[in-house]
Amino acid sequence: MTIVMATGTFDLLHPGHGLYLQKSKDIGGPNSKLVVVVARDSTVRARKRIPVVGENQRLEMVKMLKPVDEAYLGYEDDKFKIVKEIKPDIITIGADQDFDTSHLEKSLKKQGINAKVVKITDYHKAELDSSCKIIKKIKDSDFKDKRIENC
Fold first, then answer.
1. Handedness of CA 96, 97, 100, 101 (dihedral sign)
2. Which listed residue, 21, 22, 57, 81, has the most CB atoms within 10 A of its CB?
3. What is the pLDDT of residues 66-113, one digit of tens each?
4. Residue 53 burial (CB < 10 Å; 0-12/13-18/19+)?
5. CA 104 to mean position of chain CA atoms
């Protein structure tokens, strides 16, 4: 069985997340297992973003997604620790994730992890195709709108 690992924040779920996870699962083949690692709140904050949805709720939502076989929170102190525990054959990087795949593979090898890194290039184009766009639309919306004022 091929183990595929996908990682991300998964804040304010949208179709792009679903596409990324389905493509990740597909890369492993029909008998693959998709394991998702959800970034901790502290990790997201260190990257200069504050998650809207807390880490436990983000994890709970990711676990409910169809392509996902297992999901875990990452570790705060060592980003390679969970990778060593899961031992994936393939690690996927989303289209909007800014990683150099060859550099990441070298870093993994230095840690004794022999996983192939694959960039998912498909991207779900839509008006609200990122968590940041969803947040911006909410910030820019007219709160006098009846659809919002009753929230």
1. negative
2. 21
3. 999 999 999 999 989 999 999 999 999 988 888 788 899 999 999 999
4. middle
5. 16
